[in-house]
Amino acid sequence: MEQPQSLRSLFTAAKAEKTSLESRSDSNSDSYRKDVNATIAKFEECQRLLGQLSLFSSNEPLEDIATGDIQYLTVDYLLADILQRTYTSDRESTIRRALEQYEKYLSRLDDYGLLNDNDKKLYERYTSNPSSFSLAPTNDAATRREVKLSRFREEKELKQRLEYLSNNESRLQSDDEDVRKLYLAEINLYTHQAFQSMDLLSQELSMLSAIRNNPPNPAQLPQDDPRRRNENAQSDYSERLDPPLSQLLRGGKFGPLLNKEGKPLQPFTLLDRRTQLQQGVFRSGHNLPTMTIDEYLEEEKRRGGIIEGGEKSGMKEEIDEDDMDKADEETMKARAWDEFKEANPRGSGNTLNRG
Q1: Full-prediction pTM beyond 0.70?
Q2: Per-residue pLDDT averaged across 192-202, rounded?
């Protein structure tokens, strides 16, 4: 049965948009969320058209599906995968919806016998208890690591086979059988990845349900746990780096005005709240000086911390050039000093180090 062109073009556009979204880095932007919702809407429209056209039936074999229609078996998986990567305010609801789409995808593959023995066992394990589904025991780290390595090698082989078939476009155009092999290789890879996603989503859903049903008891939390901060409404704890205004007003000139008996503790002036706030807006963040340097020196003099008077050392008395007697006196002093230095050379009086 030949599907309408609208389904083919819609499916191709949705896959291209999904691939583009996976390479974007603005996953927290509004534009990204808008594009994600638009892509989800395209896949949902593909599901609606598939149901309207009745392309698949649980009572028909795989050979009855036209080659061009096999690719539409992946619509449910692609929708589940993009839902898994979507984070909304109701994450638990999104996870449940993604798991439903994965289950729908695997159920249809099981109808057509496209699950191998190992995948069929995993699918049966999931349907028997979806809430506890896991690829390996969660409490056995060694076994879980071995399973993870084994599935990694399997996925690598599936990707290599898919890449090989995709690169032979000339053969795909002329050989209908090769096209079917390509689509089936893609389905095998998606099936492998679906079980890994279901394992992770089941664990995440289990944790979210446990948190919702069993919120932590504040009494059992450590004293320094942030979740205990709201226990005491009178707690002085605050995330602010600067002290609150009420704390600032408790000290200095804005200290308590009255005691418990109502008696004034200090002189005060009645001010309105706005005036107090205005005074604190442009206040300096450090202690400002209370006097100038000159005021400080005057205060030290008053307290006797500075000694005045005495000989003015280093100050040479100026000589009047017109006073000839004074000039002759100074000349005679200079000559006497020169004669003394000639008669007593430097170091002549030091006899301690002479051998």
Answers
A1: no
A2: 92
